[in-house]
Amino acid sequence: xxxxxxxxxxxxxxxxxxxxxxxxxxxxxxxxxxxxxxxxxxxxxxxxxxxxxxxxxxxxxxxxxxxxxxxxxxxxxxxxxxxxxxxxxxxxxxxxxxxxxxxxxxxxxxxxxxxxxxxxxxxxxxxxxxxxxxxxxxxxxxxxxxxxxxxxxxxxxxxxxxxxxxxxxxxxxxxxxxxxxxxxxxxxxxxxxxxxxxxxxxxxxxxxxxxxxxxxxxxxxxxxxxxxxxxxxxxxxxxxxxxxxxxxxxxxxxxxxxxxxxxxxxxxxxxxxxxxxxxxxxxxxxxxxxxxxxxxxxxxxxxxxxxxxxxxxxxxxxxxxxxxxxxxxxxxxxxxxxxxxxxxxxxxxxxxxxxxxxxxxxxxxxxxxxxxxxxxxxxxxxxxxxxxxxxxxxxxxxxxxxxxxxxxxxxxxxxxxxxxxxxxxxxxxxxxxxxxxxxxxxxxxxxxxxxxxxxxxxxxxxxxxxxxxxxxxxxxxxxxxxxxxxxxxxxxxxxxxxxxxxxxxxxxxxxxxx
Length: 514
Description:
0% strand; Leucine-rich Repeat Variant; ARM-like; mainly alpha; ARM-type_fold
């Protein structure tokens, strides 16, 4: 069977898994041969071996003989310069990868070579290198052997890989070499890949900029930036379009570093400021200071990202303006339907506690994001009022309920238990049930146990599992009455969550004998 039908030769993970798997198979006796080869291996034994045997013993015996066959074909004798048994079925010509077959036996030479290159015996791996180097399909295993733990194998593989790695193969093998490069002896492959790709023309590197493996993209972008192969505008567009934060930072920083004062900034700033990712946007906003455009930075004071808002405030302050005045102006009218949520939380980020008076009216704003940011802003300003926030637990917007719960958690011990318990019912929306359980569970003691047991029959799987975990981690608190029969009853209802021993221990902690 051709090697390409056994594993995905384009996937570096398939090659490394194959390398490890072959050694495990040959060491620990798992069956690897096809049925007909396994039968031939069993029949090749002595008369005693031909006696009936169990499936496990047959499998181990077959694998042992298979390992012996591989070793005999490739292993060098002690002190010898050539293999003990020349693999006569191996062709020495450079044939096509899917046509390397022995005409007399029909056995796939690719399979024999691949297995020999991953053999547990280093002498077998070394002896198979020269033959395997003649077939391009094995360059992946050659790259793995270049980081081999056996010095003779490693040195020979490095010499062969250095002779055969050109720009075309380096582009193909880059994901595998970078994967193997993380190993203890993988530095050679990284250095060889770096030197080879630096000689590559620009058009050969461009496809790697959109490679699905982010490690490849990071490596190639670093190389491209060092070689100066991309213009500042191209780097800015890459920073705006790539989904990897490391690449975004590399390209954005390189694009801005390449700009000189007095140049036309539009080609760089436009893609950065319009980017969806906050890393690129924040870099563009920060660059507005060098570009002397503080008015444009004012537009980003209400950005949805906290990082971008902070950068915008920095630029505005550097030009002698106060962003707090802009935030107060935007939050003055609580009925403004166009109010951006970023203005609400931005006011809290740089405002004073007195600014909470501008946020309280926003708790009834028609836009859910504005209400949620208002709750978060009040928490940031340390202006939480439990009585005024409690009604928001019934808000129809899940985001508002979540922010309200976070704000009320420090005061969970003072909240009315009946009000929260009533919101654990199955008729309540899921965000409300989650909020009530978070607050009751934070109180601990018998109150938390009651809430957890009440949710063990909840229709939501995740909430039910969360309640079960809470019961399993429950221990009586300082306010739990000693010998309380209610606790024993609740624990008995959760018997399926404990072993008999653990359940008895929990009862002992409460002062119950059984």
